């Protein structure tokens, strides 16, 4: 995030970015709602509750499921920048209150991976294995938290949207992939910068290996690869 504006203003900008992405991808998408509770800022679609609403997922004109998304944000340790405390993307059928898939991130998670996927389903072979291992919930696939790259390399909303359209076949707006590429490039740029700040020696060694010293090599920065910015 830039240093311009308060944390709440940064959150509003972030909410507008999310709103822009979903409006350019889904045939019917609500605006984003921002709520301030103490030092936490919550962002989710207008009208979405804990077990209702969200972004409609359509096949033709038939509404079959919801994409529920929820961000909880806060000031970072400096108090100047917006940080995402948690981000949840749930795919929920209209026929069942339980989610089908849950893509979740929690910065403060202790017992589960910070970033993970949970699948609500059943598989006899998996139940058998978990029973043998002594798992306390062997019949619930959703009890497993499948790790997905930690804080820096976790799936983004753009990845979930592409999954819903390309793998699941839900209806989309013309030009949705360009919107996904555009927003994903921004997301990955920010995550790369954040990872470099978190691991400066590794970042410096990688830059030195391709010709960087204190400043960029002669001729300027190389053009970033399309695959690095846009690949699913």
Could you explain how this protein is built, in words?
This protein is of the alpha+beta class. It has helices spanning 7-23, 124-133, 157-167, 176-198, 200-209, 226-230, and strands at 32-37, 40-45, 55-59, 62-75, 82-93, 99-106, 115-119, 146-147. Strands 1, 2, 3, 4, 5, 6, 7 and 8 form an 8-stranded antiparallel β-sheet that branches. Helix 3 packs antiparallel against helix 4 and helix 4 crosses helix 5 (200-209). The radius of gyration is 20 Å and the shape is globular. The protein starts with 6 loop residues before the first helix and ends with a helix. The model has no long low-confidence stretch (mean pLDDT 90).
> Which structural class fits the helix and strand makeup?
alpha+beta
Q: How many independent structural domains?
A: 1
Q: Radius of gyration, rounded?
A: 20 Å
Helix content: 25-40%
Oligomer, anyone? single chain
Topology, number of strands: 8
Compact overview of the structure:
This protein has about 230 residues and is α+β, with helices and mostly antiparallel strands. The chain is built from six helices and eight strands; from the N terminus they run αβββββββαβαααα. The model has no long low-confidence stretch (mean pLDDT about 90).
């Amino acid at each position: 995030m830039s240093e311009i504006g308060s944390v709440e203003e940064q959150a509003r900008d972030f909410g507008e970015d999310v709103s822009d992405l979903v409006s350019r991808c889904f045939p019917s998408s609500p605006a984003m709602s921002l709520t301030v509770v103490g030092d936490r800022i919550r962002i989710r679609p207008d009208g979405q509750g804990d077990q209702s609403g969200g972004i409609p997922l359509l096949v033709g004109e038939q509404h079959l499921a919801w994409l529920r998304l929820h961000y909880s944000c806060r000031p970072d340790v400096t108090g100047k920048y917006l940080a995402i405390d948690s981000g949840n993307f749930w795919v929920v059928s209209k026929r069942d209150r339980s989610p089908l898939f849950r893509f979740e991130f929690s910065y403060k998670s202790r017992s589960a991976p910070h970033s993970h996927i949970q699948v609500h389903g059943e598989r006899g072979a998996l139940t058998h294995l978990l029973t043998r291992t002594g798992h306390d919930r062997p019949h619930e696939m959703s009890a497993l938290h499948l790790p997905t790259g930690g804080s820096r390399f976790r799936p983004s909303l753009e990845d979930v949207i592409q999954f819903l359209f390309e793998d699941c076949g839900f209806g989309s707006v013309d030009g949705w992939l360009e919107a996904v590429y555009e927003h994903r490039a921004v997301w990955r740029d920010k995550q790369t910068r954040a990872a470099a700040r978190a691991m400066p020696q590794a970042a410096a060694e990688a830059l030195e290996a391709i010709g960087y010293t204190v400043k960029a090599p002669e001729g300027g920065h190389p053009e970033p690869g399309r695959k690095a910015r846009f690949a699913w």
